[in-house]
Amino acid sequence: MAEDAGIIQPGEEKFTFMLGAFLPAFRSKMQVDGETTGTGDRISLGDDLGVDQSSTGGWLGAEWRFAPRHRIGLTYTRFTLNGDRSAARDLHIDDKVYPVGASLHTQLRLEIIPITYSYSLIKRPDDELALTAGIHWDRLTFKVDGSVTFGPGSGSRETSVTGNIPLPLVGVRYEHNFSERWSAGASLAGFALSFGEETTGFKGNILSGRLQGEYRMTRHLAAGAALDAFKVNTKATKDNWHGGFDYYYWGPQIYLTARY
Left if phi > 0, otherwise alpha if psi is -120 to 50, otherwise beta: which for 99? Predict the structure, then answer.
């Protein structure tokens, strides 16, 4: 159609900007070791701390195609998960023990920032297949406020830790244009880092996948839907955090894309 001729197709753009929201289902565990009491408990944020693990998150991103086959981009996603629960068992978190019956309020703030370079092995008008490499950067803040109103240990106690978890990420991505206005794509990436813990202060592994479909409404603007999944397992020995953090999430997503 003549009116479609002016639409900027995926692969023709120089700059891409994205804005979206999604509702993932989280499964997460946290461990905070104490300096004097040693290894902390591996705690399920949902089962042990009552954290609501179905929370809407927002994200934004940008990508620069600086040569026909070369792109670099980043996205930023943030979640804040909260929960209240009475402890069903003694919980060892940091150098503190929250006994059975303690009233707990928990907050986990998670920021996810993948930075990715893409090189297109295949680039055709309707198909693009690229290899990707980059850093998946997680920043988390974990807080537990506890109150005990009985026994010799009555009183309040608090745990608060902040950690940065940068993990390498390599993968593949593919996009196909069905028509001037419709396209779909998929990506898969992962990495395992099990060496250099003494130098980097962490080790872990990551696996991510994404399926998406898009409809281009105007020359620059498109709307899309996607299904995202992430799985991350880490162990940290940083100055401000010794312990581990595991999380898995998947969920639907809607987004807007602008190409220029």
Answer: beta
Question: d(Cα 208, Cα 190) in Å, to the nearest integer?
Answer: 6
Please state, in angstroms and as integers, the Cα–Cα distance from residue 189 to each residue in 25, 86, 168, 170, following that order: 20, 39, 10, 5
Q: Could you read off the pLDDT of 102-129 as tens digits, one per residue?
A: 888 999 888 989 999 999 999 999 999 9
Backbone angles phi, psi at 11, to 5 degrees: 105, -20
Contact status, residue 137 vs residue 115, Cβ threshold 8 Å: yes
pLDDT in tens, 206-236: 889 999 999 999 999 999 999 999 888 888 7
End-to-end CA distance of the chain: 21
Q: Tell me the CATH number for domain 2-259.
A: 2.40.128.90
Q: Which pair of structure tokens corresponds to residue 86?
A: 């009475």
Sequence-separated (6 or more) residues with CB below 8 Å from residue 239: none
Residues 6 or more apart whose CB falls under 8 angstroms from that of 113 comprise 74, 75, 76, 77, 136, 137, 138, 139
Please give the model's pTM, rounded to 2 decimal places: 0.84
Average pLDDT, the chain: 86
Q: What are the φ and ψ backbone dihedral angles of 199, each rounded to 5 degrees?
A: -90, -50
Which position has the token pair 């629960």? Answer: 85
Among residues 177, 174, 253, which one has the least CA distance to residue 215? 177
State the Cα–Cα distance between residues 223 and 50, nearest whole angstrom: 35
Burial annotation 227-241 (CB, 10 A radius, 16+ → b, else e): ebbbbbbbbbeeeeb
